[in-house]
Amino acid sequence: MTYSHPLIAGVDEAGRGPLAGPVVCAAVILPEGFSAFDQLDNSKKLSEKRRTALAAIIRAEARVGVGIAEPVEIDRLNVLHATMAAMVRAVDSLGVRPDEILIDGNRVPDGLKSSARAIVGGDGLEACIGAASIIAKTLRDQILIESENRFPGFGLAGHKGYPSPSHKAALENLGPAPIHRLSYAPVQSARQARGVWRST
Question: Between 3.30.420.10, 3.40.50.1170, 3.40.50.720, 3.20.20.140, what CATH number should domain 8-146 receive?
């Protein structure tokens, strides 16, 4: 694939709100002639089936980098700072230095080696950010689905770690597992009430 110059990388994250699992950030540089430009959008506006199909196309045709902040880092730094660190990792893992970085949101992380700007609602405005949102969302969902067997009883494959009523009820019954973010209030409450999760 041929890449235009300057190289523009889009960056987005998935998973700041959940009680469990990592924050996943993705950086994507789309090539000239990318076959699905007109299908890209904010990942939340796409069906799971469509996201999965587009993620495969993006990975096949574009340059993709990923950065992850695990729950222990989120608890240590707070979710904002952990997300910023994961964004830098995603850009660094691209394998090339972008000429410009476009970031969804209102904040540019420290530590980037290229010119960068934040765009509120950028995942619906810039194709490269939309592509990054799709990669971040699909990868994070896959991580939570694969965690279902390691931490049974929480329904992680269904709610993906978000604070659904069923997830909160499982936390109250089982106590938090290592995949949970201990600094989040519902998890703290469950830990105080039940202690830590025990595999059954």
Answer: 3.30.420.10
